[in-house]
């Protein structure tokens, strides 16, 4: 193994960290933590529960940001001390540990650098993800279920809580659609780059002639609605149907009409919920997801108007954003970023961080180009 120039490497880490701290505005984070801590300590804080929840949530987020940055700086300092100690005592084993820590810090800085790019209006929110099967029949339904498992495994790897809110199973295999929440900070900003049409190419396990089949599934990601978003939906704009929850194969899984289908008449957006225990709970969950989708639609319309006024005629993200090819070769490739992985099994097992990272950086560059043109 080639000898590592630790002083140069550590100087590079410090330079990268300094850039991240500057973009993150570390002094402002410290000031916010101090101010919010004072507000959270007020004796009458919980006289207004909604306001108290906002203050404590924001404090928690800012404390987490501060800890993430200060911990990284401490790790770089500790690495420098480790290298000096190894050289003073001529301990190769400590240098080996230092090399491993150097690699780990590089990876952590890269992730931290990506997080600093999540500065959209709703990026720090939790996320609601909906997956729908598209063209391709039973293969598409099976593909939709594969994608859902992929995202749930990704969340599990990161320790992010998830909650499946609705699942509509297909008759033969797989599912028509599913909706689930990822309850983690920045889940929306992180997963929003996964939105779009995904394509699978493989020998169909459902074709008795063993033919290759191309199928599609759509992924939608919206931010979780918050109490201060001020998005009221008049009852006259809603059509609400109730029905019995169903399981795989269309079988009924309860004997009461507890599932809810909510249609927003002006936009045609439909939300179904069936995984809660009561009709009231399913209705509340459906309304929250509908509000989230309308909130995102409003933002997209505002962004489109701004682009129109600025004369921006660039196309938005293409319909087919990623291909998963299992035959005649094995490859997963993102068509926007060019990032690819030769082991689809790893990807379907939730190892998609590199795709997400590339997507976030690609989107940030696309936004930057748009700002330059304006």
From TrEMBL:
The record describes its post-translational modification as: Methylated by PrmC. Methylation increases the termination efficiency of RF2.
Matching entries from SMART domains are given as: PCRF
Pfam hit, one:
PCRF
Where are the annotated coiled coils located?
69-115
Tagged with keyword Transferase: no
Q: Keyword annotations for this protein?
A: Coiled coil, Cytoplasm, Methylation, Protein biosynthesis
Entry GO MF terms: translation release factor activity, codon specific
- Role, per record: Peptide chain release factor 2 directs the termination of translation in response to the peptide chain termination codons UGA and UAA.
Annotated protein name in UniProt: Peptide chain release factor 2
Tell me the name of the encoding gene: prfB
């Amino acid at each position: 193994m080639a000898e590592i120039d630790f002083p140069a490497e550590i100087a590079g880490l410090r330079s990268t960290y300094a850039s991240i701290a500057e973009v993150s505005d570390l002094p402002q984070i410290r000031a916010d933590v101090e101010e919010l801590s004072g507000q959270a300590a007020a004796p009458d804080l919980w006289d207004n529960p909604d306001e108290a929840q906002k203050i404590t949530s924001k404090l928690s987020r800012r404390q987490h940001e501060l800890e993430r940055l200060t911990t990284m700086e401490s790790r770089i300092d500790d690495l420098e001390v480790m290298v000096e100690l190894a050289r003073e005592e001529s301990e190769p084993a400590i240098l080996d540990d230092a090399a491993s820590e150097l690699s780990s810090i590089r990876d952590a800085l890269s992730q931290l650098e990506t997080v600093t790019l999540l500065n959209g209006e709703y990026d720090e929110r939790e996320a609601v993800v909906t997956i729908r099967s598209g063209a391709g029949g039973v293969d598409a339904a099976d593909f939709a279920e594969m994608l859902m498992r992929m995202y749930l495994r990704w969340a599990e790897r990161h320790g992010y809580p998830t909650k499946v809110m609705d699942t509509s199973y297909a008759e033969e295999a797989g599912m028509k659609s599913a909706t689930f929440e990822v309850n983690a900070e920045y889940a929306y900003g992180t997963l929003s780059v996964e939105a779009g049409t995904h394509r699978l190419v493989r020998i169909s396990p459902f074709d008795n002639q063993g033919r290759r089949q191309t199928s599609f599934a759509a992924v939608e990601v919206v931010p979780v609605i918050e109490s201060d978003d001020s998005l009221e939906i008049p009852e006259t704009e809603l059509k609400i149907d109730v029905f019995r929850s169903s399981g795989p194969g269309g079988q009924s899984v309860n004997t009461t009409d507890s599932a809810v289908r909510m249609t927003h008449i002006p936009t045609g957006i439909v939300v179904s919920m069936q995984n809660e225990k009561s009709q009231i709970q399913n209705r509340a969950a459906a309304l929250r997801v509908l509000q989230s989708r309308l909130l995102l639609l409003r933002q997209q319309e505002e962004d489109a108007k701004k682009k129109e006024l600025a004369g921006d005629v660039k196309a938005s993200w293409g319909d087919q954003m990623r291909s998963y090819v299992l035959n005649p070769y094995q490859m997963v490739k993102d068509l926007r970023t060019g990032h690819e992985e030769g082991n689809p099994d790893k990807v379907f097992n939730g190892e998609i961080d590199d795709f997400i990272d590339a997507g976030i950086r690609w989107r940030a560059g696309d936004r930057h180009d748009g700002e330059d043109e304006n």
